[in-house]
Fold:
Amino acid sequence: MNLDAFFAGIGFRTATPSFDAGDEFVIVVTGSDDDTPIARIGDSRLRIPDAPRDSVHTKVRVRVESFDDADHTGTATYLETVGDTAY
Amino acid sequence: MSSPDDVDDVQTELDEAEEARTAPTLEFYGGRAASAIPLGLFVVWAIVQSGLFGISDTTGLVIGMLVSLVVGMFFVKGDWKHYANAIFAGMTERVAATAIVAWLWAGMFAQLLQDGGFVNGLIWVANAVPVSEAVLPTLLPALTFVLAALLATGIGTGYGTTITFVTTFFPATVLLGANPVLMFGAILSGAVFGDNLAPVSDTTIVSAVTQDADIGGVVASRLKYAFVAAALALVGYLIAGQVMATYPTAGNDLPSGNAVGLVHLVSMGLVIWTAVNGRHIVEAISWGIIAAIVFNVGLGLAPANSIVQFVAPATAPFAEAFTALPILTIAGPNTPAAGVHGSLYTGAAGFFPLIVLTLLIVAAARIMIQGGGFEAVQDFLLSTVATKVRGAETTMVLGTAGVNAMITINTAAEIAIAPYVARIGEQFNINGYRRANILDANTSALGYIFPWAGGVLAGYSQMPALVEEYGVQSMLVNPVDVWPYVFHGWLLFFVFLAAAITGYGLEYATDREAEEVARV
Structure:
């Protein structure tokens, strides 16, 4: 087991995380905004315009294209669908 | 660590829970909320019986649950057979059997330790340590919390730990003068710690599997919460030990200590070692039972007929021919009443009323799930409270705690609430480790606090026999008195409430990916 696992997450975390262009990760698509799939991460939002329209409540891998720290919103590119949500 | 078999077992339980949610729903007059009537009425009964009237009788709670189920039936629309079928389906759920097995095995094991002089061994240690008789009782609650936490973390069952400690450490420490209510609270706190942290604990496995996270990673990630709460709880027991009344006069009744009984530390160690090495808890405790029997008989701590004894009535047609057996006697003026006796019998039989109660409670929970009560709660929470991530996490903490306050068997409660924690958490891309931690901490904590909680009742059910054996009335702690003193349970709950509000320990799905569940 990685020792870092014991210390991961220690400290206080913002409700509005920010991201850098080029960041890649797997997230759950949580809803849509004017037919554009979005993922809510805390109280920040990423629009994923090219994600499949039926991708809500699925896990997708995305790459961040831009993020505005002022209003905690950004845009990401859909890379692939990796699975379903836990339920 | 947990074996893949454990995870498979949990998956079976989760499939059954999924079936409950998707099975034909029950419709109630008064809407989905009315499906909570059986459980709600039972909680009221439990509060009135044990809280207001001070009657701590598990069979009385069984009657309360039966009456509540009957009352609930009158609110069902349509054919009542669906309601009856839901009761049957609930009572045959695997999750109830898991708790029952832990109680039965731990009950037999703990009784063997008790009858084998383990209590006298502990008293011998207490007399040997260089601490004055006045100071020792003030330190015992804190010490007991630490030891119970270690045992529970090793064997992964808080219920088993509660039973073992209530029948061994509890009488020894009360005889030494410790405050009984505080001692019971300390034991329950240790059980909470182990249930929360142990990799082999059912609640740990359920929390990880339901939130798509690996068990090892989940355990590692919860230390930052568990140790904060445990450190505060330890300080709490040290302070309360000083402040609350001790009963040094109990020392007058103190049995003479005997170091030989400490051999059962080996029996306990064997259980822990076996469990930690990934063996099933039934196998682990069975080895402990075998070791305890060998020590009891081999070292003369307890005769063979104290393990199990058949006392045949004088009129029995064939018993006379077998009286050469050490475990058979014919009833007479110097024998116990005709029947079966002994440590194994007493240890298991003490849980029979609680087992029936457990089955009925899980059935009532099934009715609430099939009746849409849980879904109604989730809909309300998602639409009104959980609109921001801080609110969502607070909702997850309070929701898990609330369900565990209602459904007293903690694994059953956890399975019921797990999908909602996942659903609410995923709406904000909260990391699976964090969701698993919120789920398990509050499940572990609230399952050992309220007077009707399975963990509390498991410990309490052993106390009447202790009063009979040691003649000390204060060894009967009313479950309604102990709830403020389960410090680690309360602190774990408040640590997570604070964590939800402040963002302490919060991780998002973007921070790191949980490893596969099976990699443990």
Q: What stands out?
A: The beta strands of chain B are 309-312, 328-330, 339-341. The first strand of chain B starts at residue 309 and ends at 312. Chain B touches chain A at residues 210-212, 216-217, 220-221, 223-224, 388-390, 419, 422-423, 426-434, 502-513 (CB under 8 Å). Chain B has 25 helices and three strands.
